[in-house]
Specification:
single chain; alpha+beta; four-stranded mixed sheet; three-stranded antiparallel sheet
C-alpha cells in the first residue's frame, strides 16, 4: 500500500508466524515511518545501526509525547517499567555506565568461557533425551531448559524457585511486546513486583555466604568505592535472569528450525563444524530472536527525507535491518552459514547498550548447534508452533523426528 496512506500493521494476519514479507514492504514503502499511534519505525540497516550507536535515550522521561498505548506511564511513570526502570535496559549514561561497569566485573568473558563444560554436559543430556524419544519437542527438551538452567546456576538461584520464576519471566517477556494493552501492562507490573520480591529475598539470603556464583560476585562488585544499592542489585539480577534465557531460547529453537528448513546448510554444518561460530551469527541474523528495539530521540534526527523530532519514541526493526538488501545484497533473505559478514548483524545491539550477555548466548548456541548437527544425520521437521509474540519471537514448540 504505497504512499502517505500506508500504515505498518504489526498485527496483520500471519505476522507472528512470518513477519519478513511485512518488514520488506516497510523497508521499501516507508523506511522512516511515522505511525499514527505516536511512534516512528526505522527498518533500513544503515538507519538502525546509526540509531543503536548514537547517544539517544532509553528513558521515557525524555518523551515529548507519550504514545497512546503507554497511557499508564503518564500516571505511573517508572512504576510502569520492568524493574521500575532501574535495570540496565532502561538507564542512560552516566547511570548506565556505572551499572554496566559493576555488572561486567561479574560477567567477564573468562567467567563465561568457564561454563563451556557445563553447557556441553547439559546439551549432551538434552540430545540423549531427544534420541531416546525418537520424536521430541526441541524447545521443551533443549532450547528452553539449556539457557534457563545455565542462567539459574550462573546466578546461584535455588532450584526450588524455578517454576515460579519461569511463570514470571514469561509474563515479563510479554510485557516487551509493542502496543501492550493496559491489561498486559498491569500484569507486567505485577510480575515485575513479584520477581523483585523474590530476588530481594534471595539477595538477603545470599549476603554473607561464600558462594561462587554471579549473584555473590555482584554483591562483591565494586569500582573506586562504588557499589550497587540493594534496589539496583535486585533490578540487575532480575533483568539478567529474564534476558539470560528468554532470548536464547528463541536463538536456539529458531536456529535449529532454520537449519532443518535448509537441509543443504545443515549438511554443510555437519561436514564443516568449524563453521559453527559463523553459523551462529548468520542464524541470529536470519531469524532475529529480539525483533525490535526502542530509543527516545534527544535531538531531531534526519532519516531519508524525514525529520524525527526530539523526544520521539523510535522503534528500530532489527529483524528488518538484518534482511535489508541495501546492506546484505540480493541474497539477504537466504540462509548462508558461510556468509562473510554475518557478524555484522544488529541482533545484539551496539554502542553503550550492546547486549551484556552476548558472549553467553553465542556460547550456548554454538554448542547446541554443533552437537545437534553432529548427533543427528537426518532429522525431520514434524511441525512448529510459534509463540505468537512480535518482539521476543520464536517457536513455542518444535517437533523433530531423529533416527
Amino acid at each position: 500500500m504505497p504512499g502517505s496512506a500506508y500504515v505498518f500493521d504489526l498485527f496483520a494476519d500471519g505476522f507472528a508466524e512470518n513477519p519478513y514479507p511485512h518488514y520488506a514492504e516497510l523497508r521499501e514503502t516507508a523506511p522512516a515511518h511515522e505511525h499514527p499511534l505516536g511512534f516512528w519505525l526505522l527498518s533500513r540497516y544503515a538507519d538502525v545501526t546509526r540509531l543503536q550507536r548514537d547517544s539517544h535515550s532509553v528513558d521515557e522521561e525524555h518523551l515529548s509525547r507519550l504514545p497512546s498505548w503507554k497511557s499508564d506511564s503518564g500516571t505511573l511513570g517508572k512504576e510502569n517499567r520492568m524493574m521500575r526502570g532501574l535495570a540496565l535496559l532502561d538507564r542512560d549514561p552516566p547511570d548506565h555506565t556505572r551499572l554496566r561497569r559493576l555488572v561486567s566485573q561479574a560477567f567477564t568473558r573468562r567467567a563465561v568461557e568457564a561454563l563451556e563444560p557445563r553447557i556441553t554436559e547439559l546439551v549432551g543430556e538434552a540430545l540423549d533425551r531427544i534420541a531416546g524419544a525418537g520424536v521430541a519437542d526441541v524447545v521443551a527438551e533443549l532450547a528452553f531448559p539449556l539457557p534457563f538452567t545455565v542462567i539459574s546456576e550462573l546466578l546461584g538461584i535455588p532450584r526450588v524457585e524455578h517454576d515460579r520464576l519461569r511463570d514470571l519471566t514469561g509474563t515479563l517477556a510479554l510485557g516487551l511486546e509493542p502496543l501492550a494493552s493496559p491489561d498486559l501492562q498491569s500484569r507486567t507490573r505485577e510480575a515485575s513486583r513479584d520477581l523483585e520480591a523474590m530476588v530481594a529475598d534471595l539477595v538477603d539470603w545470599k549476603r554473607g555466604r561464600r558462594d561462587d556464583d554471579l549473584l555473590a560476585a555482584l554483591l562483591a562488585a565494586e569500582h573506586d568505592g562504588d557499589v550497587l544499592s540493594r534496589d539496583e542489585l535486585v533490578a540487575q539480577v532480575a533483568f539478567l535472569y529474564v534476558a539470560g534465557h528468554e532470548t536464547t531460547v528463541n536463538l536456539i529453537s529458531g536456529g535449529i528450525l532454520a537449519l532443518l528448513r535448509h537441509p543443504a546448510q545443515y549438511s554443510l554444518l555437519r561436514g564443516e563444524p568449524a563453521l559453527v561460530a559463523n553459523a551462529v551469527e548468520e542464524l541470529v541474523r536470519y531469524d532475529t530472536p529480539v525483533q525490535l528495539m526502542r530509543r527516545i530521540t534527544l535531538e531531531p534526527v534526519s532519516v531519508r527525507g524525514s525529520v524525527i523530532p526530539a523526544g520521539s519514541w523510535v522503534v528500530a526493526c532489527l529483524a528488518a535491518a538484518n534482511r535489508d538488501p541495501e546492506f546484505w545484497g540480493s541474497d539477504a533473505d537466504e540462509l548462508r552459514i558461510d556468509r562473510d559478514n554475518a557478524h555484522r548483524n544488529v541482533s545484539f545491539g551496539a554502542g553503550v547498550h550492546h547486549c551484556v550477555g552476548a558472549a553467553l548466548a553465542r556460547l550456548e548456541a554454538r554448542i547446541a548447534f554443533e552437537r545437534f548437527a553432529q548427533r543427528f544425520a537426518a532429522p525431520e521437521l514434524q511441525g512448529v508452533r510459534w509463540n505468537g509474540r512480535i518482539n521476543v519471537r520464536g517457536p513455542a514448540s518444535l517437533s523433530v523426528a531423529v533416527h
